[in-house]
């Protein structure tokens, strides 16, 4: 007990506090990057007869948040398919265009930063300047989003001074670590017969096991390298694959066994080196980044509102933006498309595909993740010329999410597993298989207590009434009624036979007088 300035005795008010991780959106923007390059055809490859198709794909080597800036570094892989002039063979050349971009963030330093980068070509113009030079001009659009976390103090409980409190659950996910670890796997690689020309070498990856122990994450999985080549002049293509196992150990200082981990493989490059003891032998080097998002789920209760049955309480509130993990998914999705061919007599040589970014779409109160993958049908038309026909295929993930009070933030990565096409009576059909993985986070804005003071005692009732009757309406909160009368909500519930915090129907409440 203590005395106030007027000599009246007051009960000391105790305030208990804790800290939570508060979400902050650091940036959400689109960066347009120019694509301008000149590609020279090596002497050992055929001269250009016709440009068939050009592609641009990004490889992000570094995403760094430092000093209020986000820096992206990597390269754009520009590859061009063309038909050779001498033997009409299908050929490929490529060039890497390094880039470095910096983005000013909305706030200063914060912890638990995670960065999402996706994109697609805005336009791409490719032309043969002469028989050994290709000019490429266009633009690539990066969609960049970054989120961080700061520790913020909240009031978790109040005691004394006749204070009544309303607790609200704060479900939040603390980002323990967001790491991308580059690694390389090398192995021998055998062709059925020595290839005349290698057109492309790509890789995908899958996670088989994640084991979290104190301070370390052990990740096991498989990389799949696929090489497309010609074993003879012409446009007949062959493909050979090889699986390479990997086992990576990542040191994470604050990792404990109660954490969860979302892991992805981000391919960065695939290099084939000719040589070996047998005919057609080679070695392959696959470079990837292992992306780990380590999370810890938390649930605490904060005081959302308060009043006193004995004092005039001054209450200050503040907004709180809590973020929690809704879903961590990994899917294998097959998308299909069909349609007529511009030349119905075309023969399908191969099918390539470019995954496009997925987005959340509201469908009747539920959010669905959907997008497209563009299938590229490489065909030989009736004139013997090689053409590329594009067919869009819709991608829809199987799970839907309720559109609640918060805002859903989706980070999705799509990797191409395979693409195939065949002639049909109406033209052509294609199937594209993707490995799709990602996270769904909900950001919810809450109002919580920031400060409270109880200085002036309540004026004693003048009418001498010890019990009042209040006719409540359905949907009213018991806490709000109790605050109006400075009464104990638990006592109102006990005397009136109320269960729960909200009145389900019209009813009579017995309100005891303030203490």
Summed up, what is this model?
This protein is mainly beta. 3% of the residues lie in helices and 74% in strands.
Note down, in words, how this protein is organized.
With 515 residues, the chain is mainly beta. It is 3% helix and 74% strand. The protein has two helices and 23 strands. The chain has helices at residues 478-485, 489-496; strands at 2-3, 9-10, 14-40, 48-66, 69-84, 90-104, 111-130, 133-159, 163-190, 197-213, 216-230, 238-251, 260-274, 281-308, 311-339, 347-355, 359-363, 366-380, 386-402, 407-424, 427-457, 467-472, 507-512. Strands 16, 17, 18 and 19 form a four-stranded antiparallel beta sheet that branches. A three-stranded antiparallel beta sheet has the order 3-8-7, with no helix packed on it. The protein has a three-stranded antiparallel beta sheet with strand order 4-5-6, with no helix packed on it. A hairpin with a 5-residue loop joins β18 and β19 (386-402). The longest helix is centred in the last third of the chain and has 8 residues, at 478-485.
Rg, Cα atoms, Å? 32 Å
Rounded average pLDDT: 90
Number of helical segments?
A: 2
* Gross geometry: elongated
- Enumerate the spans where pLDDT stays under 50 for 5 or more consecutive residues: 1-10
Strand content: over 45%
Largest sheet: 4 strands, antiparallel
Q: Helix/strand/pairing class, anyone?
A: mainly beta
Helical residue percent?
under 10%
The secondary-structure element order is EEEEEEEEEEEEEEEEEEEEEEHHE
Total number of beta strands: 23
């Amino acid at each position: 007990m203590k005395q106030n300035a007027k000599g009246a005795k007051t009960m000391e008010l105790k305030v208990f506090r804790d800290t939570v991780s508060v979400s902050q959106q650091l940036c959400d923007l689109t960066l347009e990057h120019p694509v301008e390059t000149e590609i020279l055809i090596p002497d050992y490859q055929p001269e250009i007869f016709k440009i068939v198709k050009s592609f641009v794909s990004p490889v992000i080597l570094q995403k760094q948040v430092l000093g209020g800036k986000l820096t992206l570094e990597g390269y754009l892989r520009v590859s061009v398919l063309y038909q050779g002039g001498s033997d009409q063979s299908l050929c490929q050349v490529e060039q890497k265009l390094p880039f470095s971009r910096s983005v000013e963030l909305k706030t200063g330093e914060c912890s638990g930063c995670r960065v999402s980068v996706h994109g697609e070509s805005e336009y791409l113009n490719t032309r043969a300047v002469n028989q050994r030079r290709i000019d490429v001009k266009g633009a690539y659009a990066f969609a960049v989003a970054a989120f961080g976390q700061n520790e913020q103090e909240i009031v978790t409980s109040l005691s004394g001074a006749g204070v009544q409190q309303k607790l609200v659950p704060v479900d939040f996910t603390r980002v323990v670590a967001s790491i991308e670890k580059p690694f390389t796997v090398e192995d021998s690689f055998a062709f059925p017969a020595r290839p005349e020309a290698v057109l492309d070498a790509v890789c995908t990856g899958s996670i088989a096991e994640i084991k979290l122990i104190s301070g370390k994450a052990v990740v096991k999985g498989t990389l799949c390298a696929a090489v497309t080549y010609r074993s003879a002049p012409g446009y007949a293509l062959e493909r050979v694959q090889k699986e390479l196992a990997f086992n990576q150990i990542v040191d994470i200082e604050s990792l404990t066994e109660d954490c969860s981990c979302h892991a992805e493989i981000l391919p960065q490059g695939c290099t084939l080196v000719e040589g070996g003891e047998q005919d057609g032998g080679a070695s392959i080097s696959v470079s990837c980044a292992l992306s780990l998002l380590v999370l810890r789920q938390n649930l605490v209760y904060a005081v959302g509102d308060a009043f006193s049955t004995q004092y005039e309480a001054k209450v200050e509130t503040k907004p709180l933006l809590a973020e929690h993990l809704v879903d961590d998914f990994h899917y294998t999705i097959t998308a299909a498309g069909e349609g007529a061919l511009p030349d119905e007599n075309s023969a399908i040589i191969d099918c390539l595909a470019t995954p496009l970014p997925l987005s959340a779409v509201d469908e009747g109160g539920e959010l669905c993740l959907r997008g497209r993958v563009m299938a590229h049908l490489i065909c030989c038309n009736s004139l013997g010329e090689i053409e590329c026909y594009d067919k869009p295929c819709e991608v829809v993930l199987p799970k839907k999410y309720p559109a609640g009070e918060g805002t859903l933030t989706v980070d999705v990565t799509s990797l191409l597993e395979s693409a195939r096409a065949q002639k049909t009576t109406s033209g052509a059909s294609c199937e594209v298989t993707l490995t799709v993985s990602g996270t769904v986070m909900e950001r919810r804005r809450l109002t919580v207590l920031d400060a409270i003071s109880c200085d002036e005692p309540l004026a004693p009732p003048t009418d001498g009434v010890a019990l009042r009757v209040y006719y409540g309406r359905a949907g009213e909160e018991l806490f709000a009624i109790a605050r109006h009368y400075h009464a104990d909500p638990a006592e109102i519930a006990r005397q009136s036979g109320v269960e729960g915090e909200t009145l389900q129907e019209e009813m009579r409440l017995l309100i005891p007088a303030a203490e």
